[in-house]
Amino acid sequence: MRATEQEKQDIRLYVEDQAGETVVHLEKVASEMVGPARHDIWDVHGEDGRWWVVTNATNLYSQQDFKSRDVVLTFHVGLMMRVAHLQEREVPFTPEAADLLPGSWRRWEQAFTAYDGGDEAEDFQAVGVRLRECLVSFIGETSSDKLVPDGKERPKNADFRSWSELLVNGLAEGPSAAKLRSYLKKIAVETWEYVNWLTHAKNAVRIDAEIGLKIVEHLLVMFTEARLRIGQAATRCEECGSYMVTAGACTHCDWEDPNYQPPERLPVSEGGS
């Protein structure tokens, strides 16, 4: 099959890096669509071995283990599906960001485990129960008396709807955050209602549980992003509006902030520790 010189070079470098041997011959032998993804199959000869390389995502397989390209493609597609499934259950944050809601994410992962092991309606209802526990844990990790306005009664500890509304008001204050505030309130209400429906859905199927996992994940992500947003207010140039302001000076138009005060320098010790 036709292949560009760049494709050949990429495959050559990949095999030599992964297999640790010099490539002496390579050829693209097939290209097939499997669902939405195209996979190219390469027959690669090294100095010491012969390999299949399958793309999207690229991986190599010894031809001693896989005798035909059809067999290796079938294995590769199954492997990529499994990798994608495992990636879906990973917390979609850096450890530092995930640590903002450790209990919530732990219960979300428990719900995913219940989903993996389920086949019947009651199993998918159990996913709903775990997700409800996740949302209650979320409230436990984020609620604070400081969120309650003066003169207002403190909501009950497990009152997700009331606490989530108070939390949104604290995370997205002011006119500039009106759209974010509205969005967070809507997804909080809809997520809570869906999870409660799933908990009692006697005819629930696997896709219902999967939807529940995804929308709860989305809620945790959005509220975490809203919290991170508070600490990332950027200084803007008063002349051109650029965010490229460093040490009181705009690198875009050379404006200088007359009120900028450089941080105090710590004294440098001379010798010793």
Short description:
With 273 residues, the protein is an alpha+beta fold. It contains eight helices and six strands, in the order αββββαααααααββ.
Give me the secondary-structure topology.
Elements (H helix, E strand, L loop, with lengths): L4 H15 L3 E12 L2 E10 L3 E5 L4 E4 L6 H20 L6 H4 L3 H15 L4 H22 L17 H12 L6 H23 L5 H25 L14 E2 L2 E2 L23
Antiparallel strand pairs: 1-2, 2-3, 3-4, 5-6
Helix pairs in contact: 4-5, 4-8, 5-6, 5-7, 5-8, 6-7, 7-8
Description:
The protein is of the alpha+beta class and 273 residues long. The chain has helices at 5-19, 69-88, 95-98, 102-116, 121-142, 160-171, 178-200, 206-230, and strands spanning 23-34, 37-46, 50-54, 59-62, 245-246, 249-250. The strands form 2 sheets. Strands 1-2-3-4 form a 4-stranded antiparallel sheet. Strands 5-6 form a two-stranded antiparallel ribbon. A hairpin with a 3-residue loop joins strand 2 (37-46) and strand 3. The longest helix has 25 residues, at 206-230.
Strand order of the largest sheet: 1-2-3-4
Tell me the series of helices and strands, N- to C-terminal.
HEEEEHHHHHHHEE
Instruction: Provide mean pLDDT, rounded.
Output: 86
- Main sheet: strands, sense, barrel: 4 strands, antiparallel
The percent range for strand residues is: 5-15%
Counting DSSP H or I runs of 4 or more residues, the number of helices is 8
Radius of gyration: 27 Å
Distance between the termini: 66 Å
Helix-and-strand structural type:
alpha+beta
The tally of beta strands, per DSSP, is 6
Q: How much helix, percentage-wise, in residues? A: 40-55%
- Low-pLDDT segments: 268-273
**Envelope shape:** flat
